[in-house]
Amino acid sequence: QAFDQVVTKDAYMAIDLFQHGVANFQLAQFQEALLDLKLPQAQLRG
To answer: What GO molecular functions are on record for this protein (predicted)?
Structure first.
């Protein structure tokens, strides 16, 4: 839940989204993890 709050406050902080994706992966929430890991990649390529 804390990750969710951080990501909603600053959607351009790629490291937050990446860590959120890692946490979702570790919780076996693979679809959410994939989305979280794709977003920072798109933002970094800007």
So the answer is: superoxide-generating NADPH oxidase activator activity
Domain map of the chain by residue range?
Answer: 2-45
Give me 12's structure tokens. Answer: 């351009």
Which ranges of the chain would DSSP assign to H, the alpha helix? 2-9, 14-26, 30-45
User: pLDDT, tens digit, for every residue of 1-46?
Assistant: 776 776 677 666 778 888 889 999 999 999 999 988 887 776 665 5
Nearest to 18 by CA among 5, 37, 46: 37
Distance CA 46, CA 34 (A): 19
Q: Do 7 and 24 meet the contact criterion of CB atoms below 8 Å apart?
A: no
